[in-house]
Amino acid sequence: MTQERSYRTTAAEANRRKMIDAARECFVERGYAGTTIKAVAQRCGLSQESLYKTFGGKARLLKAVYDTTLAGDDTPVPVAMREHGLAVRDAASPDQAARAWADMVIALGDRLGPLLAAVTAAGATDTGAAQLLETMNQERLVGARMVADHWAGNGWLDPAREPHEHARTLWLLNSPEVRQLATQQQDSTEDYHRWLVHMVRTSVLRDHPETAWTP
């Protein structure tokens, strides 16, 4: 019985991954409005009933796709405890922290970019997409507060402002809108990385050194 239950669990997890992968492809290719549960079912080779039983509907499916894409896989490990989050946590100096944070912002943005474009385009007209955008913004703010609080505990924040104010700055710098505008003015990912480090070092962290970015 235990082996049978284990097999069923493994099969269910594999099917869930198939659904999420197929849904991601559909959302990116067709947009949120153009993606249907039927289309996802056809893409992954599973039934519509299975999709509804697993996710309940398209909005919850989109959230699952977002969560999995953000994390990089479907294992229940938060971003803060993954490679880039741990690098930010374990940084030994403000400069290392700024660089690790910029690494994380770029890595997560690269991973989410195509999906975010589809969700943002649908957000103005679709309630489900708009709700996900709001959830994403709130989750990003929670992450920014965690980073700011950690840096405050290390004594690294500029004392001219409170930690929650620095968290808002990190939240804004990590927004898709700022990324789009900033990258339009940068020649390469390396330039964008230097700009992020410069902004964090001069507006969030104390003892501002000269950085290798020139406006």
From TrEMBL:
GO molecular function: DNA-binding transcription factor activity; transcription cis-regulatory region binding
Residue ranges of domain HTH tetR-type in the record: 13-73
Sequence intervals crossing the membrane: none
Signal peptide (from-to): none
InterPro entries on file: Homeodomain-like_sf (IPR009057), HTH-type_TetR-like_transc_reg (IPR050109), HTH_TetR (IPR001647)
DNA-binding residues (ranges): 36-55
Keyword Transcription found: yes
Keyword annotations from UniProtKB, A to Z: DNA-binding, Transcription, Transcription regulation
Gene3D superfamilies: Tetracycline Repressor, domain 2 (1.10.357.10)
Protein name per the record: Transcriptional regulator, TetR family
Source organism: Micropruina glycogenica
